[in-house]
Specification:
The chain is of the alpha/beta class and about 800 residues long. Helices cover about 50% and strands about 15% of the residues.
């Protein structure tokens, strides 16, 4: 590592040279539109206006006509407290004062948004973009072209994307053949470089390109890429795989290795390493070693800071997972320099490409390469089209090899890219913003990151196991995080659990009354819904006689359980939560077989069951204090919650653990005794619930397990005069029948029977005309089909 003071002086001097060397260009963030420059500078200074501007830009393509544009202008900006300077006026007020003002306003907005898009997007089609790419080449910049459009959700969309990539490759190869020679752009110390360089998004090649469908997604992506890569080899072009967001990263590198195995002699392949990732340095070392050992044409590695920081951070926080990215810009900058050193140290094993608009980051790579005797052509500097034009100009003046990342595509698919670039340019951490909008001093901007390499991690940590909840001092409730199945470790643990569950199928689930197994004449057999010849569980089949015995045992056990303190009953739930965490993967695996749930859905069901225990335990502690009650002078009043007696829980099959856990736990923690009648299709999962609660301290008599046919044992329990309440989740028809039967007052009954009935239904999703379909369609598809529509929330 080069850390001398002389080296640091050289880095900062070079950074100043880059920052100041583009002054022959107008010192603006963008080159093509005065209006855009001023608008974005205004947005940087006024966050509220910035938010509304980007929302409008994002929704703009969905506007059908001028009237629709005007309506959205009013909706997005009329309540904004920041006044827009008249020179930047989007035309909102014009409509009220000028004849045909609505059309004038809409046309102004349309023209300016399109102008903004053209500054970042090279053209609507490959042919339309080619003249701009040719101008870049003549100006001294090579290019890599990216087709706009991200993750696909249907096969036809993936096929269209592959066809568009082939068209782009054809146009680029043919069109670039007549360009003038530019020796410093067309070779490096290791050979010839392609004029035609195409960046491909793997997630657009298959709707199955993700961690849980990796095999099928990989096969589809490979099938669509093979002819493209073969054509690139024949034409001497480069195919570069973009890394995109977290879920796609590992599979993208796997796809790259598969392509390398099939095409070890070329064409030139490339990939992206994102320095804002905690595991980027490890990935870089692995890629360098693979390129050295497996490829005869060195892999080009594009080192970037990363473009999905907000998305990665929000997803991780919402799920309760460790973030895969550095939290602070200084850490990313330091890691970028660490990775730059590694690339330079292994130049030849790979072809280094340094992609940044941060003059410090660019200068560091250039200076380090020079200090290690690397030919000036040994590193490529990459910049985004339409951004930080003075930096482009300075690097060209220095005769550096520069490549522009140039998106191509229509406005609608391009909006996601455009908004991401706008957010990047105007973020509080953006170098472009600091330098070109805020005019910060170069001394501040070229200073070293101030983060030591030893403090930078090389891997993404797994979430630590949760400690059991202390009922004397419980922490605030938080949801149980779902398994982070995008990581290899959790996926492997789940696969191992599924294998264990498969080897233990066909187990017995007897009726349990007062903790004792009760033999029944008949059995219920649950099978794997995906392979109905596979028996998962053979359960007892309780009838009226077993139901009566269970009620009698519960009545006998109830007074003792009722008198247990609220805190001790809550402690049982907290222990049960800890027990369930210890066997979480095995319970999810059982649901995969008995309920036919996909792994993510099964894991989420177990998480929800844990949530019920943790949440209701805390609620019990709160309720133990009673409720507030008015006291008149001379009175001493109290308000306490008391259990009702013996309850019956009748649960459904589609959430075989979470829903019965919620109903059973609520009844138990408030001091009631419970008889659980699970769905006929999933008695095995329900048995595990009962076993965990018994292990956690619920008295055997206070919780009975009475599997059986609803019309036989369920109906009898609903009508039983000693049953105080019924909790039911299921169909409307059965729910209404339970309500009718429970309303009948029978001989020997000394209470009004209560019914809590959650009955079946489906939700509607309303998609507005200006909805982001790239968000709405996958969300609706996941809702409807991630569990074949078998969710009450589908």
């Amino acid at each position: 590592m080069t850390t001398s003071q002389a080296f640091e002086v050289e880095v900062q001097a070079l950074a100043r040279r880059i920052a100041e060397g583009g002054r022959r260009e107008q010192a603006r963030v963008y080159r093509m539109s005065w209006w855009t420059d001023r608008m974005l500078e205004w947005a940087m200074r006024h966050p509220e206006f910035k938010t509304q501007l980007f929302r409008f830009v994002d929704v703009f393509p969905a506007c059908r006509d001028d009237e629709d544009v005007l309506r959205h202008l009013e909706e997005y900006f009329e309540d904004t407290s920041i006044d827009v300077p008249k020179a930047l006026d989007l035309g909102i007020d014009v409509a009220e004062h000028v004849p045909f003002g609505a059309h004038i306003s809409a046309s102004v907005a349309r023209r300016n948004v399109l102008r903004m898009a053209r500054q970042f997007i090279a053209g609507a089609s490959p042919s339309a973009a080619l003249p701009k790419l040719a101008r870049l080449w003549r100006h001294g910049e090579a290019s890599t072209v990216d087709l706009l459009g991200e993750k696909t959700v249907i096969t036809a969309e993936a096929e269209r994307y592959a066809a568009r990539v082939e068209e782009l490759l054809d146009v680029f190869v043919t069109g670039s053949s007549s360009w003038p020679e530019r020796p410093h752009l067309e070779s490096d110390p290791w050979g010839r470089l392609s004029r035609a360089n195409v960046s491909v998004k793997p997630t657009a090649l298959s709707p199955l390109f993700g961690p849980l469908t990796a095999r099928d997604g990989m096969d589809e992506a490979l099938a669509r890429l093979r002819p493209i890569v073969a054509r690139a080899r024949a034409e001497g072009a480069t195919i570069h795989l973009d890394t995109e967001y977290d879920e796609a990263k590992d599979l993208t590198f796997e796809l790259l290795r598969a392509l390398g195995a099939e095409f070890p002699d070329g064409p030139q392949l490339g990939c992206v390493v994102q320095a804002y990732r905690l595991d980027s340095y490890t990935d870089l070392r692995d890629l360098v070693a693979w390129s050295r050992d497996s490829l005869r044409v060195p892999l080009q590695v594009r080192l970037v800071k990363g473009a999905y920081w907000d998305q990665e951070t929000i997803v991780a926080r919402s799920e309760g997972w460790p973030s895969p990215v550095f939290e602070h810009k200084a850490e990313t900058d330091a890691n970028f320099e660490r990775c730059s050193r590694y690339l330079v140290d292994h130049a030849g094993d790979v072809r280094p490409a340094i992609a940044s608009h941060n003059v410090r980051s660019l200068a560091y790579a250039i200076a380090y390469a020079g200090a290690h005797g690397l030919d000036e052509r040994g590193i490529e500097l990459q910049l985004l089209h339409g951004m930080a034009e003075p930096v482009h100009a300075a690097l060209i003046d220095m005769s550096r090899r520069v490549r522009v990342y140039a998106p191509v595509g229509e406005l609608v698919p391009g909006m996601a890219y455009l908004v991401r670039r706008l957010l990047e340019n105007t973020s509080n951490e953006s170098f472009v913003r600091h330098r070109f909008a805020e005019g910060r001093t170069l001394d501040e901007l070229v200073a070293p990151p101030g983060v030591d390499d030893d403090s930078l991690p090389d891997a993404i940590p797994e979430a630590p196991p949760r400690s059991p909840t202390d009922p004397a001092a419980p922490s605030p409730f938080t949801n149980e995080p779902r398994a982070e199945l995008r990581r290899p470790g959790p996926r492997e643990r789940m696969r191992a659990a599924v294998d264990r569950a498969a080897s233990a199928l066909g187990f017995e689930a007897p009726v349990l009354i007062d903790g004792r197994e009760v033999a029944t004449g008949d059995q219920l057999v649950s099978v794997d819904p995906g392979r109905i010849d596979t028996v998962v569980c053979r359960s007892g089949r309780a009838g009226p006689a077993e139901a009566d015995r269970a009620v009698d045992a519960a009545l006998a056990a109830w007074p003792t359980w009722r008198d247990v303190t609220w805190r001790d009953r809550a402690a049982v739930l907290f222990r049960a939560a800890a027990h369930m965490r210890g066997r979480r993967a095995d319970l999810a695996a059982l649901e995969v077989f008995e309920a036919g749930k996909p792994i993510p859905e099964a894991d989420a069901d177990v998480c929800e069951a844990i949530d019920f225990w943790e949440y209701y335990g805390r609620e019990a502690l709160r309720m133990s204090a009673g409720g507030e009650v008015y006291e008149a002078p001379g009175e001493a009043n109290s308000y306490r919650y008391e259990p009702r007696g013996v309850g019956v829980v009748i649960s459904p099959w589609n959430f075989p653990l979470a829903i019965p856990t919620g109903m059973v736990t609520a009844a138990l923690v408030t001091g009631n005794a419970v008889l659980l009648k699970p769905a006929e299709q999933t008695p095995g999962v329900a048995l595990r619930l009962v076993q965990i609660l018994h292990e956690a301290g619920v008295p055997p008599g206070a919780l009975a397990f009475v599997p059986g046919v609803g019309e036989e044992v369920g109906a009898h329990l609903v009508a039983h005069p000693q049953v105080s309440f019924v909790a039911f989740t299921g169909s409307k028809a059965v729910g209404l029948e339970i309500v009718r039967e429970a309303a009948v007052h029978r001989e020997g009954q000394h209470h009004v029977k209560r019914v809590i009935a959650e009955m079946g239904g489906k939700n509607a999703v309303i998609v507005d005309s200006d909805a982001d379909l790239d968000v709405a369609v996958p969300a609706i598809t996941s809702s409807a089909f991630s569990y074949a529509g078998q969710k009450c929330s589908a």
